[in-house]
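Case 177 in the screening queue. Each case pairs one protein sequence with one candidate compound; here the compound is zinc ion. For every case the pipeline is the same: read the inputs, emit a complex structure as tokens, and attach any notable structural observations.

Predict complex for case 177.
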Amino acid sequence: MRCAHCGAEIDEYELYCPFCGQALPTGALSEAERLLVRKNTGYYGRHFAALRAGKKTDWNWAAFAAFPFWAAYRKMVLPALLSFIAFGALFWFRVPWLAPALMVVFGLLGNPAYYRRTQALAEGLAAEPPEQLEQTCLRRGGVDWLLPVLLGVALLLVGVWWQFFLHRAALLLYPRG
Ligand SMILES: [Zn+2]
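Case 177 output:
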């Protein structure tokens, strides 16, 4: 985004413009929330504001299309792993046609879950000294490309293992091929 004061190109989570030093508007997010969300603060600012005002449902296309990867990117490690296992379980129990229903559930739950997590983190940081707030927020929140990549590698390994397992099982059941 651009600084409204000097026009310099700056990161959207900055609280002060690094070029002219002017304070930047935080919009619908608190300082801590903006640092925790870090990317797409405009989008999450609008959605968090609606949830804060009592909106019960919300929709997130990224959470719908690829919840485990979206959650991992947003550093929600446990939801990422659990959803990953949930999708695996649908294939394990041979009901893969239920996957779209699960995707819709995750599309609906994504933003409320992320909002609650960001709230909890922000409340835990209320006593944080202001000079450390930015570093702590960026460490605990923010986004991370490494986690979804690791999840993709795990998916690949499970797929390879599954092929191998099926192949071995087929050989045991039908030894003459
Ligand atoms: Zn500026």
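Case 177 observations:
- The first helix runs from residue 31 to 37.
- DSSP finds seven helices and no strands in the chain.
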